[in-house]
Amino acid sequence: MSPKDTQAWTDLQSHAYYMSQSHISTLFQESPDRFSQFGFAQDDLLLDLSKQRITDETLSLLIKLAKERDLKGWTEDLFNGKHINDSEDRPALHTALRTPKGDKLEVDGVEIIEEVHQNLERMDAIVNKIHSGQWRGYTGHSINTVVNIGVGGSDLGPFMACKALSENQPAEARALKVHFVSSMDGSQLADLLSHLNPARTLFVISSKSFTTIDTLANANTAKEWLKASSNEASESVLVARHFIGVSASPDKALSWGIPESNQLAFWDWTGGRYSMWSTIGLPIALKLGAKGFREVLAGAHAMDCHFRDTPFEQNLPVLIAMIGIWNINFLNINAHAILPYDGRLSHIPAYLEQLEMESNGKSVTRDGKATDYSTCPILWGEVGTNAQHAFYQLLHQGTESVMCDFIVAARRYHDTDNAELQHQHQLNLANCLAQSRILALGDSVIEGAEDAPVYKRYKGNQPCTTILLDELTPYTFGQLIAMYEHKVFVQSVIWDINPFDQWGVELGKKVATTLLEALGPEAATSDFDSSTQGLLQHIAMRNQ
């Protein structure tokens, strides 16, 4: 059944007609203590929805819609390993990757949790070996640099986590440098290799299929660099000393040359954008140590339990998801800005762009019908203080309605006497709170603003969510990312789409292969459209 056929959807449409005429500033005037109504918490994470264009009735109707769409049933299917990724006929068990040891979950005749922890313990052993200086390169020197080669989910999640949690490194990890390479054109890798010591560099090749062209191209370049730098070492020795493979296709990793002893495995039910909780998270474990990585998993698991067990009315992933449904499908807001006020979270906008737009950027329902309602909005973002000097002009005075997520930590630098650092954090918090206030309420909060010329006025009424962490730690980071993962799932249930496949990226890869052949010296270009043919001919002329 289409979501539009539910009673709740119909009621929300009627309610939206009334609410679309209202202003968030008016809602605060009518109910000054909105924060107590629309502030929700789980452990060390606070979700403030009071600057959304909602009332108690709005939330009640949205919860009704979630119930009519059987969100509870779908959630149980997710956690129990049902094949809810129906187009690929497999489960989506990223929650199992952070389930504590000793719990049980049998899927298709296999005890999943036990296998997960066997892989984590294998990863722990590798991490400890590298941190202790026992993993040695072809000259016998210890490894002091790790380069993760991946793309998409094999890059964005680990890269984001390592950046976010860099201040949480244990002593044994601080001497180890961790780099990330994803660019297909080789520029990232070439620049990096120019100042690395090959004898002390370890490459982690992260690829679910171990057939990803961009990743293998970079891996082959790294292998050739090592061979050129070590004339006396055989290729098998170089690969054994300087490469680790992380893949769900161990045979292909072995064919490339990586011995089984250097491989970490995960499963085909681990989606790329949900994979940093698996052995794809090896760079995170190298950065934080095995204990720190387990704290990230613990935070995510705590959010899993909250999502599964908490009534919808107090359930953070459900609430943030349904607010998104309200903005997109009933207030017709199809742009979403992610605004972290913390430089450590600078990569979370890029991560959420993939998580949300690759998951829910669909226009076909689970039964193959075209949707006649909007699904995933366009996401973008930037660290808040940079964004203020970039695209906030559009947010404040442009013609587009935009929903905004502000993400910030309440505490930082509290363990130092450096007054200047503490002041900087207060300045950061002041900017975060001020911007969300003006975006939602407009210049009505500024005395005398009504007398300003029109080009200096701020209309407000941009719906804003504030996500306030007590402090950015491995645990709260895990909470935060898991909350967004479950948000995506909730919205997919409402929209009746499969969030775990990504067929939209496959055709481009296939067409790129045919074009690669056409870029060769003897290739004919007559089989392409005139634009592509003309571009190929121009490229060929410039390369003569």
Task: Explain what the structure shows.
Helices cover 47% and strands 12% of the residues. The protein is of the alpha/beta class. The chain folds into three domains: 3-68 and 310-495, Glucose-6-phosphate isomerase like protein, domain 1 (Rossmann fold, 3-Layer(aba) Sandwich); 95-286, Glucose-6-phosphate isomerase like protein, domain 1 (Rossmann fold); 503-542. A six-stranded mixed beta sheet has the order 1-2-13-12-10-11, sandwiched between helices. Strand 8, helix 11 (250-256) and strand 9 (263-265) form a beta-alpha-beta unit. The model has no long low-confidence stretch (mean pLDDT 94).
CATH topology of the largest domain: Rossmann fold
Describe the biggest sheet?
Answer: 6 strands, mixed
Shape label? globular
The CATH superfamily of the largest domain is: Glucose-6-phosphate isomerase like protein, domain 1
As a percent range, the share of helical residues equals 40-55%
CATH class of the largest domain: Alpha Beta
Short description:
The protein folds into three domains: 252 residues, Rossmann fold (3-Layer(aba) Sandwich), CATH 3.40.50; 192 residues, 3-Layer(aba) Sandwich (Rossmann fold); 40 residues. It has 20 helices and 13 strands. The chain is globular and about 80 Å long.
